Amino acid sequence: MTIRVGLIGCGLMARAHLPGYEASRNEAEIVMCCDNNLQLARDTSAKLGGTAVVTTDWQSVIDNPQVDVVDVCAPHFLHAPIILAAAKAGKHVLLEKPMAMNLAEAREMVTAMDKVGKVFMVAQNQRYLPEHAPIKKWLDEGAIGRVIAARIDGNQFLSKSYPEGHWLFSKKLAGGGVIRTTAIHKIDLMRSFLGDVRRVTALYSTSGLNPGMDTEDIAAFAMEFESGAIGEAFFTFAAYQNPIPTASHELVILYGTKGMINNINGWHMHSTEVEGYKNGLTSMGLPNADYGQSFVHEVKHFLDCVANGKTPATSGHDNLKTMAIIEALYQSVETGKTTLVEHT
Ligand SMILES: NC(=O)c1ccc[n+]([C@@H]2O[C@H](COP(=O)([O-])OP(=O)(O)OC[C@H]3O[C@@H](n4cnc5c(N)ncnc54)[C@H](O)[C@@H]3O)[C@@H](O)[C@H]2O)c1
Fold first, then answer.
1. Do 230 and 92 belong to one domain?
2. Partner of 35 for a Cys bridge, out of 41, 192, 224, 282, CB 3.0 to 4.6 A?
């Protein structure tokens, strides 16, 4: 049976999701395209062959009995109202990250979706990058021993990607800046590699380089994982250059008791244990962050969960733990203190 999809928000990320549906033509069809910019909804429908109904009213997508699932690529402040309405109507949901504006909202959304027993997946696309599964396997097999430290880093210039006045520049509409919007990717990935985080210490600032931005565009923070591993992170939306020699311009270094894995100039490993990796950092022969592919795998995983009643790897429940880390980071800045991550 074809899964009928209503797309809510037809901006940048919706366009990134489309190849996932194109690759799943036998399983799913986008039947509605919604954006409050009607032209964008029309353009998206046209790209799909013109049969999808267009609207500016997201509630009408949810109310439509011909829609089985909603794929929500809308601004952050709309995530909770849309998902709460979708739960009420019994729709399955694929929702772009971050799940919500804060942890309380996220909890309410997960509870509401639990009640109706539909699939609720958060689109943490980096978890679906093909290279991350083999890395996780190496880690679980102890190839670099016990992971004792991790470093993550990401550099972007927000106003080069989005126009002045865009909702992402506004704390009220986005719920924060570089932490909630971008650092969340690597935080979520590190959780999947290293396990949960116990406490965090954070600093942030607003550079003034992104005109009109009233929330943080530079953040530095430390994390202590439940395992005892220490994480160091730096993320900015105010970088003229991308200094990180990786395809994604984001850095990952994992330090183990028996070696190291990092993604500099492609994924490399040194292991005192594994043949072929004993003489220093050696290419792991993995692809390096083909971002487009991550969305295809993500959409396919979601559709598979809907069709076969599976729980997504990045379910709403799983994502609460990521949201709790984000919440603790903001609290740490506000209080000036190291902050325990709430249990979810
Ligand atoms: N996974 C990633 O790598 C990644 C990258 C960028 C953004 N995102 C996430 O994707 C989501 C969307 O971001 P984006 O970059 O596509 O933003 P965008 O502004 O390009 O798209 C959002 C769309 O929502 C529409 N919209 C606004 N209010 C609406 C309403 N009331 N009803 C219907 N449509 C409405 C806007 O017109 C816009 O077209 C966010 O959650 C963002 O954090 C994820």
1. no
2. 41
